[in-house]
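Progress narrative, Year 2. Work on L-amino acid amidase from Hypsizygus marmoreus advanced from sequence curation to structure prediction during this period.
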Amino acid sequence: MGLASSDSERSGTVDFIVGTKTYQTWYMVVGDLKGGRRPVVALHGGPGMSHHYMLPHVQLFTRASIPVVLYDQLGNGQSSHIHDVPQSFWCPELFMDELDNLLKKLELSDDFDLLGHSWGGQLAGSYAALRQPQGLKRLIIANSPASIPLFMAGANELLDRFPPSLGTMIRKYEAEGNMKPKEYQDGVMEWCKRHICTLDPWPEQLLKSFGAAKEDPTVHRSMMGGYSFKIIGNLKNWSIIDDLHKIKYPTLLISSPTDEIQEAAILPWFLRIPKVKWVELQNSSHLAEFEEPDRYFEVIINFLDTITA
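Result:
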């Protein structure tokens, strides 16, 4: 296990064995994992992003002394990058195995909370429903769809609210498989500035994660397909809806009316998880940790302080 450390922060790697190959998962810990306060393990989105845009969650420690674990999922950021595997290698089961491995290596398997954002919430929800880990105590799902088809339907409905010429142009290029024209990229960015992050300019940590995804798009292309308004990758038909009743942990849902993840894709979490609370943040889109941090962290800390498990 490689390690670098300071008084309240340390980072390192753990070995993750898949078949006959050994890869590395990079992680970062803020706070004392043995200090008596249950840690939050935070899962980034994408798939294909890096931990950088999740760094605001360090505020759970600075605001409430809650230890935080961040990590780069396999194929992303500072974890191992892999290019000699079939597309089918990149699947939710792989990332659930990686999470299992990280928890064991950090000796957290017996007592931890999970927070997942976007794809990270899909992963956290799948892990809770399908693996049902004994040590998981509370679950936070932020801006995550319960179904990829429902997510795509909502994203396209949002696109239809823009001038018709924008949607026509974007869909034309995506039908051609050509995402390089500046016109296309500018059009997608116009949509993103309304439904991904409303800040101008975008925070450096967010740009760093997008840069990491662009530098190595393997995971995103394999799982999502590389388009903005259609999914052709391994997650094309992904849905956790039929398994949501298996999530027995107290769960907090966070969303926004203007998020790219629209209400129809959030609603199944609320309807089917037995113990669940849903909070909508009115002044954010997809990234409340940047757009509305005081309210976002207030909601999370209140949940962690008041909901016992």
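The chain has a mean pLDDT of 96. The chain is about 40% helix and 20% strand.
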